């Protein structure tokens, strides 16, 4: 049966991945909320802090935009736009300042041609393609006499997601390190506030670690089910 593998004993890997991701997401949300009640002593909004960081880095050309959502903040390297979520944009909280500085860190990475960021950007279209064709290839391989070549190709394409997650880790960790150094050097946060922002960014980093583990478990599951010519009758 082509869909048998969806409900076999290795499905526990999927459950573990979902639980880890949910726990990490809950932790970052609770940590962000905890320090979202702490107003930074300078009274800067997250928008102002990010704009100052960008301008001091010679990135006046990077535009800033406000987007819907909570913790949907991101830096678009293709269009040179730093987007802050509604929960962050006009907030003066330590949490918001930390998140905004993190995204500004990505813009500085882009300016300096930070290699892991360039690799991650190059992987985006390849990973999206891999996600789209991986499962169809595996299912077609099963339906057509358990064609191991098609199945292995599908697993390989699926593995691109895990590769993307691995490359993402140094990108995110480096952006947070840059953010904390800049916040201290430019006196945007006090010593106590820096410690709080560090907690927020560490919590956010755990979501990427959890994502990488979940992705690895998914790949491992497919390998155990279909790799090496193992056939289930």
UniProtKB/TrEMBL annotation:
InterPro entries in the record: Zn_peptidase_2
Keyword tags: Membrane, Transmembrane, Transmembrane helix
Domain of life of the native organism: Bacteria
UniProt entry tagged with the keyword Transmembrane: yes
Regions crossing the membrane: 6-28, 122-144, 150-171, 205-227
Protein name: Neutral zinc metallopeptidase
UniProt source species: Pisciglobus halotolerans
């Amino acid at each position: 049966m082509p869909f048998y593998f969806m409900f076999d004993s290795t499905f526990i890997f999927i459950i573990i991945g979902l639980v880890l991701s949910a726990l990490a997401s809950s932790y970052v949300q609770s940590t962000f909320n905890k320090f979202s009640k702490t107003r930074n002593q300078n009274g800067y909004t997250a928008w102002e802090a990010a704009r100052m960081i960008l301008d001091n880095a010679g990135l006046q050309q990077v535009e800033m935009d406000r987007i819907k959502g909570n913790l949907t903040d991101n830096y678009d390297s293709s269009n040179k736009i730093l987007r802050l979520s509604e929960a962050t944009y006009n907030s003066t909280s330590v949490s918001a300042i930390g998140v905004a500085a993190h995204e500004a860190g990505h813009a500085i990475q882009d300016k300096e041609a930070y290699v892991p960021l360039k690799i991650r950007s190059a992987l985006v279209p390849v990973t999206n393609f891999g996600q789209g064709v991986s499962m169809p290839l595996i299912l077609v391989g099963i339906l057509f006499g358990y064609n191991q070549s098609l199945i292995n190709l599908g697993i390989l394409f699926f593995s691109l997601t895990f590769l993307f997650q691995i490359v993402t880790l140094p990108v995110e960790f480096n952006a947070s390190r840059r953010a904390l150094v800049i916040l201290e050097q430019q006196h945007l946060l006090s010593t106590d506030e820096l410690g709080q922002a560090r907690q927020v960014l560490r919590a956010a980093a755990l979501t990427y670690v959890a994502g990488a583990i979940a992705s690895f478990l998914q790949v491992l599951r497919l390998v155990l089910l279909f790799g090496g010519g193992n056939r289930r009758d």
